[in-house]
Design brief:
globular; alpha/beta; 7 strands; 9 helices
Length: 204
């Protein structure tokens, strides 16, 4: 996982509540064995019509938000099934930060594990931010200072779990966190000989 300190980029607004993971990445695309390439299927049923053409009334199809890195969404974003693919699809599409009044718990954890930042703001502050950025305006998210800076220079502070913040700032996924204790792990292994002969297993 690459370190995340902040991002400055275009903002897309999906002002809808209870967006579930089946809308984020429909079930028919879960058969893929790769972890990449899910971005083109993001919000598939909302973005495209039955002929595969972009729906002009869908928020992310607005040319002004092409390449957006920050997504502002409604309450309970990412509810529903626990599919990891929802986080993968958002990240593969290009989003680095999702801001909402609340998230599905499992979805938020899946985002954290891949370095996709989820920020919770009170509904009133979300509305203020939406009014300030519209769709396509640039904003900045600074995880080090825990601030969102809107296009007019207004600053919105946000709370963030400090353990997750440390991991994101330093690019520490589950494996990388384990490896920070590599010396202790090696010392433990040296003091506790294997109970099963690895040589015998190799020969067998």
């Amino acid at each position: 996982m690459k370190p995340f300190h902040g991002v400055s980029g275009a903002v897309a607004v999906l002002d809808r509540t209870d967006v579930d993971t089946d809308q984020i990445i429909p079930k028919q695309f879960l058969k893929r064995i790769e972890r990449t390439g899910f971005g083109k299927f993001l919000f598939f049923d909302w973005r495209l019509d039955s002929a595969g053409a972009p729906r002009p009334d869908f928020e992310l199809n607005d040319p002004a938000v092409a390449g957006a890195k920050i997504l502002i969404a409604g309450a309970n974003f990412g509810c529903g099934s626990s599919r990891e693919h929802a986080a993968w699809a958002l990240q593969d599409y290009g989003f680095e930060v999702v801001i909402a009044p609340s998230f599905g718990d499992i979805f938020a954890m899946n985002c954290f594990k891949v370095g996709l930042v989820t920020i919770v703001l009170p509904p009133a502050e979300i509305r203020t931010l939406i009014d300030a950025v519209g769709g396509g305006s640039f904003a900045e998210v600074d995880l080090e200072r825990q601030l969102i800076v809107d296009p007019m220079g207004g600053e919105i502070p946000f709370a963030f779990d400090q353990f997750q913040r440390h991991c994101l700032l330093n690019g520490l996924d589950d494996i990388a966190r384990s490896l920070t204790h590599e010396e202790q792990i090696e010392a433990y292994e040296a003091a506790h000989p294997a109970r099963v002969s690895t040589t015998a297993l190799a020969v067998g």
